[in-house]
Amino acid sequence: MTMKALTANRLDDGEAVFWMGGRWVDRFADAQLWPDQDPAAEAAEAHAKNELTQVVDAYLIEVIESDGGYAPLSYRERVRAMGPTNKLEHGKQAEGGAAIEALVHAHGAARSTGRVNLIKRK
Amino acid sequence: MPTLVKWTGADAELAEDPFTAVDDDQPLPRGDVIISLTRFQAEGDQLLSEGRKIGVRVEADEAVEALAYDLPRIAVVALVFPKFRDGRAYTAARLLRERFGYAGQVRAVGDVLREQAHFMIRCGFDAFEPADGSTPADWAHVAARFRHVYQRAADDRAPAFTERQG
Amino acid sequence: MYRYDDIDKAILTDRVAEFREQATRRLAGLITEDQFKPIRLMNGLYLQLHAYMLRIAIPYGALTSAKMRKLAFIARTYDKGYGHFTTRTNLQLHWIKLRDAPDILEHLAEVELHSIQTSGNCIRNLTADPHAGATADEVDDPRVWAEAIRQWSTFHPEFSFLPRKFKIAVTAAETDRAAIKVYDIGLRLHRAPDGELGFEVLVGGGLGRTPYLGSTIRKHLPTRHLLSYLQAILRVYNRAGRRDNAWKARIKILVSSLGAEEFARQVEEEWEKEPRDGVDLPDGELARIRAAFAPQGFETLPAASAAFQAAKAADRAFARFVRHNVKPHKVPGYAIVDVSLKAPGETPGDCSADQMDVVADLAERFSHDEVRVSYEQNLILPHVKLDDVPQVYAELQAAGLATPNIGLISDIIACPGLDYCALANARAIPIAQDIAKRFADPERAEVVGELKIKISGCINACGHHHVGHIGILGVDKKGEEFYQLTLGGSGAEDAEVGKMLGPALPADKVADAVEQLVEVYMRERADGERFLDTFRRTGMAPFKEAVYADAR
């Protein structure tokens, strides 16, 4: 079952951020999740797109369950939520912990909602 | 009510705009009008004989050369920026000034933003219909940003290589 | 090395002030992102996956120790202690904050560095032969002309909103170390039969979704008319280039659709209409720029160096380093020393701030304070005395910068890819690392010989995959990273676009495939043939068969 989250980049430092109840948080694990089809998701996205000074380029992403937590469905969004795979000490992944592990071990990445081959992050 | 930003050569000021911009399918009001290139080619002679001042609006994909022979009779050439990123009007303006020696008003219309003031003035624009609510002071401020320029354009600024020689 | 005069400095200072004002207005919400984005891009600031990326221009790849130290300072102070040298000889910093950008630009301006026009639909950073001023095979110093074009193209009022980005490269030798055939405009300095110096002008080369090799629209343009001719080309493009579809907006599409002959005719027609005096530089200005690049401080030395020879005899590793990373210099007793940023296991093109300081120091002490960036993402110390090469080698080695692999299989070009870039479909860095690790043994790499692998994480081809002897393009197949291999590309004077090997391979099969391709080459090669030569002789069949044998 896929859920939705709202993400953007913070205007002043470019950090990937996630919507949580009216404010923007740094950690994907803290992101607000909506069930698929929930109109509140679109409403939040519309609100975020009109933001002038907080964030840039807000958009909804699909999220799946993973390892007791959640992970973005697309591999690109996982990289945004974790950090670059060539420097594990950089980016949000440096924090470690269960939430990051859920992202690291997530599989079943897809660009679309279609079911696809598994992909494991090395 | 003055709405046009005009560049005097040294400063920007707000001015009354005596011209009415008219679409192809609109009837012409009295007085000075800005009409499309197509309409000018069809009705221009007639309108000029009526003693009005005529401005011609040139779209980004139209060749400003089409006006070459009529320029002495045209008071305003309005060059359209369909999006501010569409840079064709910069070439059109330079051609008007440098190739055809046009001495009338070259006006920027459409998606016209203050941050382009420096480039526009250098290319020979001397009037602007801003789309971003900017004021003459904004335009003058941006126009004054660079104390030196590297290349010659339609304005009279000496390029760096000339300054270096003298 | 060109040094800014008061006019250059004033222009840069004014630009820094302009951007500070614009960024401040943006952060305060006085200007929208739509309006700010082109401004931001024209100052080299991209929004990427994790943060803003700042692309600092390194005009014609030329740095001094002061500039390199400043880059190290910026990397340490405002980023995560490293930078990435690109295929456009720029430096990218991947962890930049918009609110720091005005201060960063101010710091850069102190050493005449900037990020002007490193993005946006304008004329981008000029690139040139990184061996300029050091190589015997050039007819003139291409940096003179690259600098002239740089100034002319900076804040050009007519050409700052082109249909798409515009890139110009200059070379002055038969051996093309600047890939001019895949540039929007490629300029090749040469002498006409009567001795007159001129440019062969190629237009419409480019990589990306639709790769093209440039067409020669003018065989010989006298050098004094360079800028007026460029103006004619740019003006034809500005007026006629497509603006309806970003994938069809480059000049290569216009040249292709008109045909090179018609395009050339339009350029010549435009060129004839404009007085050239106002555009072409006066002799005095050309002389001033030329003087900045005049060779200085070369000692009169014997062609051979006893110390250098002795070091080679005594140390096999040093001898190997010399074989691959040291090139002949036009001045007797000197050499060009390549600094590899491709240590196996490292990120290709990355350089830590500490390493930048080491290179800066070596440049100052041993290379007439010059260091260059090549489009193959390596650095070059262009003027090292043979006597000093052993010392330089020792210090490079201590800093992890002496991998003896220039031009070899582990000297891989790779874009940042999906690890950093918002445009990417797949990662490029891990693929490069896998391949480089397989061929980390320097003896093995040497036996394989020249083999240029180039990896792009998406169709935009920043990794130049189209012109790799082996090209690798990352594609996204329903969320999984797949890689399409091409063979037989070249970015040199024998430029060619690579041909597809077969269906895309999953990430964990790519290094295996490269090993299989190398095996075929080793089996098939005739005496003295590089991989590229063997491929050109045998064609695709044996290579395809080896990689896709299991498929049957």
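qc> Residues 112-122 of chain A have pLDDT under 50 and may be disordered.
qc> done
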